[in-house]
Amino acid sequence: MGTFCLVLFGCGAAVVAGKTIPTAVLADAPAGIGVLGIALAFGLSVVVMAYAIGPISGCHINPAVTVAMLVAGKINVRDGIGYIVAQFIGATVGAAVLYAFQSGSPGFSMGEWALGSNGWGPGYLGGYSTLSAFLAEAVLTFLFLFVIFATTSRLGIAPWPGWPSDLPWY
Fold first, then answer.
1. Which range has the worst mean pLDDT, 14-18, 41-45, 139-143?
2. Is the pTM of this model over 0.85?
3. pLDDT by residue (tens digit) across 64-113?
4. Residue 116 in contact with residue 12, Cβ under 8 Å?
5. Phi, psi of 79 (to 5 degrees)
6. What are the distances in angstroms from CA 18 to CA 35, 38, 43, 102?
7. DSSP label of 75
8. How far apart are CA 16 and CA 107, in angstroms?
9. CA dist., res. 52 & res. 58, Å (int)
């Protein structure tokens, strides 16, 4: 459920409202939400899912988190495999629902990046190389996991008021 929501809302924001509609297509079109809006959609999806499914599964909505928790010994292999399979299914179903939404749009054609996927190389954003894309993913994933491990550690900082750990069932 968590990865489904992350793909549907995060990638959906990028696909549906991420860019401004050219005035040649629709003269009075509203401006798109841009990169900040897309980032907020992803971030809010994670926070909402942390509250909704955190007490159930620990909010494993990204395979990188699950693999890191598995390597750190915080979950067992059976649960880790189950989470990863569920994440792939959730992402696939989320993309299928997003495709169903988009296919109803006039003039929609399934392009290379039609469902908000990331890319690199010529023709995509800054045209970054494969090495640059890999390095960015590795560093940012490390920082993401560092924050998760630091904030979920029993030795970490005290929880903030309103954080999921303040919920009675957490």
1. 14-18
2. no
3. 889 988 998 989 999 999 999 999 999 999 999 998 988 887 777 777 66
4. yes
5. -65, -40
6. 7, 7, 15, 13
7. S
8. 13
9. 10
Alpha helices in the chain (DSSP H): 2-5, 12-17, 34-57, 63-71, 77-103, 130-152
Q: Is 168 helix (H, G, I), strand (E, B) or coil?
A: coil
How far is residue 94 from each of residues 42, 131, 146, measured CA to CA in Å? 13, 29, 27
Task: Tally Cβ neighbours within 10 Å of residue 144.
Answer: 15
Both tokens assigned to 89: 């299914």
Instruction: Give residue 152's Cα distance to chain centre.
Output: 19
Q: How far is CA 24 from CA 27, 28, 86, 150, 154, in A?
A: 6, 10, 42, 49, 56
pLDDT at position 154 is 72
The pLDDT value given to residue 110: 76
Structure tokens at 95: 């993309």
First-to-last C-alpha distance (Å) of the chain:
19
What's CA 43's distance to the chain center, in Å?
Answer: 8
Cα–Cα dist 58/148, whole Å: 11
